[in-house]
Write a structure and sequence with these properties.
By secondary structure, the chain is α/β, with parallel strands linked by helices. The chain has 5 domains: about 120 residues, 3-Layer(aba) Sandwich (Glutaredoxin), CATH 3.40.30.10; about 200 residues, 3-Layer(aba) Sandwich (Rossmann fold); about 80 residues, Ubiquitin-like (UB roll) (Roll); about 90 residues, NADH-ubiquinone oxidoreductase 51kDa subunit, iron-sulphur binding domain (de novo design (two linked rop proteins), Up-down Bundle); about 60 residues, Alpha-Beta Plaits. Strands 12-11-15-13-14 form a 5-stranded mixed β-sheet, with helices on both faces. A hairpin with a 7-residue loop joins strand 17 and strand 18. Helix 20 packs antiparallel against helix 21.
Length: about 650
């Protein structure tokens, strides 16, 4: 046993430190009393209230808004309210991600239901003076619809939210993630309490099967079936693992749930532990998520204090405890067997299956691995029933899916939509269309493991099978929108560069094959490609897919194959004409200064290699022999006479 493994097992064997708990709950009835006592905390946020009611101000404190000083905004609100003796009339709290990241920091005022966007510290005084004191909304902070240019004051009236159905994200933007009482007030831990006091493990598994929930980490395996297999596996010691090693470029679904609703993951893991016969759980989370880690730690301690985690939960005889294990940011550790290897203290590499983790996983014991979004759905399935959940979505893909919508789109953010909604609805209604009025070109779903989808397939319903049929995949939920200015060869190179960097190197197909693919793409984008390179790309891609050990290698060529399928003419333009139709590939373009130059000299001062010459108020020139095509001149120029043109 390695030193790391021994230390980890020692931590897992430590009994809960909260032997004396001031808030210790002994039964489900105690929990119900806490819920009733706490429900007033959420009253203004969930109900209409008469004029004159004390207002609540919620400020988004997800990572994006947090980095834009939402913490300071909260402090300013509370200081100003205290200074003006308004603490009896209003209060200010943090909450999780509202999802509309493009417009953060977001401030929402209850019970008015007014939604302010792009708020800064300097706006606090005006919001208090105008909105709270005079009853007048601050109109300049309201959301402006990109199509109609109409100012919209409430969240539910925004196209971004109209077609969303926030189930996994139900508490994000509603509760303070650092207060367990607010989670309990919204029926938190009630599912766990009822299950461990009235149900048998097989009842839990059957309910989950009936709901139709499938894994949201990418594979889409039925969650109830996975729990059932682990339950049937023999062993007195089993483990429940939460996979929070979210690594897709641009994806932040799991991080946002952990930051905004950590108790839902703790409750779901405890339910899972009861269902499969495990008393120990691990949250494997990448160390690059400090805010999520902080709030998860707070939530674990609070759950222990309330006797909702640890020994003899609610005097039911059921024990379940959690530890946090940090990942070092390796994308391959999102694969469950590589993740297990990492927890054990070994190099994060996938292992051959079978046996599957449900039979032999962590330390050789039966183990169930679910990702964050999957777990976030579980408490509410037991609160509202499997029939309710199964009524949402399509025949084989039930419920909702959270996507990180990004790229050339007006409304960037986190969206949760029912399965079966079309890509067109997400891009043009929820997303508000293509930024800058440009033409849509493609959308990449499934991150580096997925594929590009073009205009002709935009009416495809989003579910596991439909996306697979058109050459893409659901993945964990990345959705990158591209317009006419994107070069598809460059896009394929971007994703392949990521997977080459993240390959664990265990199998030759992935370690060597993907590197050769990337070399060919680099050759093509440098204007050195040859016609036979297209056949090489296809043959090598199919070989890598068929012979790689894990999902990383098996799906890595997907962006190459899908862009070649739909945009072969772009590949041929790079190879045969030695040009990049989108003007993206640096080696196939050059910067020139047109007659619109005003001679301000800013371009010359910005050039790192002194390639630009010219006198003040006279047209400048770029020495193409010296120019490194970094684009610094284009960025610095105030009137944009500098153009990127094709090398002919």
């Amino acid at each position: 046993m390695t030193r790391c493994t021994a230390e980890w097992k020692r931590k897992m064997s430590i009994k809960s430190s909260a032997n004396v708990r001031c808030n210790m709950l002994s039964s489900i009835e105690d929990l119900k009393k806490i819920r009733e006592k706490s429900q007033g905390l959420l009253f203004l946020r969930k109900n209409a209230a008469p004029a004159g009611t004390k207002r609540e101000i919620l400020v988004c404190a997800g990572t994006g808004c947090h980095s834009a000083k939402s913490k300071e905004i909260v402090e300013n609100f509370n200081e100003e309210l205290k200074k003006r003796n308004l603490t009896e009339q209003a209060s200010c709290h943090i909450t999780g991600c509202f999802g509309f990241c493009e417009k953060g920091p977001i401030v929402k005022v209850f019970p008015d239901d007014v939604f302010y966007t792009e708020v800064t510290e300097d706006d606090v005084d005006e919001i208090i003076s105008s909105h709270l004191v005079e009853g007048q909304m601050v109109e300049r902070l309201l959301y402006i619809d990109p199509k109609t240019r109409e100012k919209i004051d409430t969240q539910n009236h925004m196209n971004f939210y109209r077609k969303q159905n926030r189930i996994a994200l139900r508490n994000c933007g509603l509760i303070d993630p650092e207060k367990i009482e607010e989670y309990i007030a919204n029926d938190g831990y009630m599912a766990l309490a009822e299950i461990i006091t009235t149900k048998e493990p097989i009842d839990v598994v059957d309910t989950l099967k009936a709901s139709g929930l499938r894994g949201r980490g990418g594979g889409g395996y039925p969650t109830g079936s996975k729990w059932g297999m682990t339950l049937r596996s023999k062993g007195s010691e089993k483990y429940m693992i939460c996979n929070a090693d979210e690594g897709d470029p641009g994806a932040f679904m799991d991080r946002s749930i952990l930051e905004g609703d950590p108790h839902s993951i703790i409750e779901a893991m405890a339910i899972g532990g009861f269902a499969i016969g495990a008393n120990k759980g691990v949250v494997y989370i990448r160390a690059e998520y400090p805010l999520a880690i902080k709030r998860l730690k707070i939530a674990i301690e609070q759950a222990k204090e309330y006797n909702l985690l640890g020994k003899n939960i609610l005097n039911s005889g059921f024990d379940f405890d959690l530890v946090i294990k940090y990942g070092a940011g390796a994308f391959v550790c999102g694969e469950e067997t590589a993740l297990i290897q990492s927890i054990e203290g070994h190099r994060g590499e996938p292992v051959s299956k079978p046996p599957y983790p449900s039979e032999s996983g962590l330390f050789g014991k039966p183990t169930c691995v679910n990702n964050v979004e999957t777990l976030a759905n579980i408490p509410i399935i037991f609160q509202k029933g499997p029939e309710w959940y199964a009524s949402i979505g399509t025949e084989f893909s039930k419920g909702t899916k959270v996507f990180a919508l990004a790229g050339k789109i007006n409304n960037v953010g986190l969206v949760e939509v029912p399965m079966g909604i079309t890509l067109r609805e997400i891009i043009y209604e929820i997303g508000g269309g293509i930024k800058g009025g440009h033409a849509f070109k493609a959308v990449q779903t499934g991150g580096p493991s997925g594929g590009c989808i073009t205009e002709k397939d935009l009416d495809t319903p989003i579910d596991y099978e439909s996306l697979s049929r058109i050459g893409s995949m659901m993945g964990s939920g990345g959705m990158i929108v591209m317009d006419e200015e994107n070069c598809m060869v460059d896009i394929a190179k971007f994703y392949l560069d990521f997977t080459v960097e993240e390959s664990c190197g265990k199998c030759t197909a992935c370690r060597v094959g993907n590197k050769r693919l990337l070399e060919i793409l680099n050759k093509i984008t440098a204007g050195k490609g040859e016609p036979e390179d297209l056949d090489k790309l296809r043959i090598l891609s199919e070989t890598i897919k068929d012979t790689s050990l894990c999902g990383l290698g098996q799906t890595a060529p997907n962006p190459v194959l899908s862009t070649m399928k739909y945009f072969e003419e772009e590949y041929r333009a790079h190879i045969e004409d030695k040009r990049c139709p989108s003007g993206v590939c640096r080696d196939l373009t050059r910067y020139v200064i047109t007659d619109a130059c005003i001679g301000c000299t800013k371009c010359a001062r910005a050039c790192p290699v002194d390639a630009i010459s010219g006198k003040v108020r006279e047209k400048h020139e770029i020495d193409q022999e010296i120019c490194i095509k970094c684009g610094a001149c284009y960025t610095a120029c105030p009137v944009k006479p500098i153009k990127a043109v094709q090398i002919v």
